[in-house]
Every structure is written in C-alpha cells, then in structure tokens.
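Entry 14. Structure prediction run on the chain below.
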Amino acid sequence: MLMTDERVVFGNAFHGVFQIALNGKLSAAARSALGRMGLHIDRQPLSFYPLSVWRPSLDIIVRDLFPNLPLEEAYRLLGRKMVLDVSETVLGRGALALGRALGPRRLLMRMNHNFRNIDNYVQMQLTELAPTQYEVFINETLGVPSYYQGLLEAALGSTGAREPHVQRVRTDGTSCTYRVEWRS
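Output returned:
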C-alpha cells in the first residue's frame, strides 16, 4: 500500500528506462545486482518502485554503462541516453514529433507535467529570463543534478532547438536551478 508521503517512481518510468532505453545494454553483473534489489528488468513492471530502490539502481546503471567516466559526467550522459533511446521507439517517435511541433519553449512549459507522470515527488518551476533563456528549478534531483541536466539537454535538442545549453547555476541540498538557453 502506498503511503501518501512515500516518494515513488511509477512503473512506466521503470519500463522506459530498463525495458526500452537500456534493453540489452546492461551487463549480467548489473542485471544481477538490480535483481537483488527487486528490479527484475525482464518482468512486467510493478505499479511503482520506492525511491529507496530506484536511486541506487541509477548508481548501478552508470557504473555499468560508463565505468571509466567521472560519476557526474556519467549521470549527465545517462540522462541524455534516457531521452534519446526512448525516442527510438514508436511511442518515443510520436513524442519526438510532438516536441518538435511544440518547440523548446512550450516543451519546457510541459515538463513539470511530464515529471509528474514519472514519479510523485519531482516538481519543476520555470522562469522566463528571455524568449530563449529560462531558469529551471527542480526540487529533487536525487543528489545527481547532472542526470537532470542531461535530460534537459536531450529534451531541448529533440525539439530542434539550435545549440541548446543547460548550465547548473545553484544547488541547495538535492534541489537544483539550471539556466537553459538556445539560439533561435
């Protein structure tokens, strides 16, 4: 039973990460480690996964996929990979087409809604600084703000934004503020 204050990641996010983006890309050792945590990537996803299971699973993934990179860069690449690999699926291609139709500004405006479809704890606030420059506040980055930086970079790139750039400007605990900009 889900307690109202329990932070969870929904099964659709598990499906997108493990069964689409990382399908066939993890080593046997990583798959085994995930299985010991209760993340059986070959099975139907549960309705939700507690954050206490989800967060360590990301560590296993980055160490497996990017063993020679510093963790910060590995997490940024994982964030990008999630968006780019999911966009290779039929559903992802549809989302990619929608993103291109919306453009970077409107996509950013919808991202809080998108995060709410992934988990029950991430909230994003958007402040326009200029027509192609925004400040993006994310209340919970799980202590890996570079992961969300990569997500934002790839999402902007998928809209056709020219030269998208995402820079961390402030962190406070596990929240982070980013400056997001692109050329028009």
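The chain has two domains: 8-86, 104-183.
Filed with the rest of this week's runs.
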